[in-house]
Amino acid sequence: MKTIDLLKPTPGLRVLISGAAAGIGAAIAQAFLDVGANVYVCDVDPAAIDKAKSANPRLHVGVADVSNREQVDRIVDDARSKLGGLDVLINNAGIAGPTGGVDEIDPQQWERTVETNLNSQYYFLHRAVPLLKETSTQPCIIAMASVAGRLGYAFRTPYAATKWAIVGMVKSLAVELGPSNIRVNAILPGVVEGERMDRVIAARAQTLGIDFEQMKSEYLEKISLRRMVTVDDIAAMALFLASPAGRNVSGQAISVDGNVEYL
């Protein structure tokens, strides 16, 4: 097989992506559709899901709060029915969580961040791994972590804690599932341009008592390449990990961040 062919995911790959009506998840879904995959996405926002389906009728869609185990069970059952099985699970859903000192963060906000960012990944894994064990078509799991899963992140402790936990889970599952030929990796996005990042910068600026542009400049100064990454950069890495070119890549936490030096 030619090297260029190794970079192409197998046509007809069956892919389930959580939290994928917009942002990084939507870009990943579109990338897989563009290479001929069959894709099922879920999101908590019914309007966003309707919009995604209208924009691309080829998508299979469902609505769910991923922090709710019963709703995740329903999504996985529906995806299995619609796709006829599963080859790739992409645990993408997550929230930014609160910004503030650890003594100021509301316990309910902490719990909501853990439930959405971490517990949800377990819920999907618990139901999807048996399906992945049934396929011989490059079964793999991609977990969305963050550069905050390799660096300390002051005033964002709930978010950082969940992302570090995801990296630990990925490395453990790579060992556990390797004998079943299931590869498990994490993608660690850096500062991703878009409305969500703008909200994060604004919240941190408010916490530190500085203006938005100064805070944005400080973020960029922490990146070796002095630029943000895009959702398409993240999607490209997901495609690589699901392709034959990534067949021996497992247990890795791969940063796509322009080399964020510190947070």
From TrEMBL:
It holds the Pfam family adh_short_C2. It comes from the Bacteria. Gene3D superfamilies: NAD(P)-binding Rossmann-like Domain (3.40.50.720). SUPFAM superfamilies: NAD(P)-binding Rossmann-fold domains (SSF51735). One of its GO terms (molecular function) is oxidoreductase activity, acting on the CH-OH group of donors, NAD or NADP as acceptor. Belongs to the short-chain dehydrogenases/reductases (SDR) family. This is SDR family oxidoreductase.
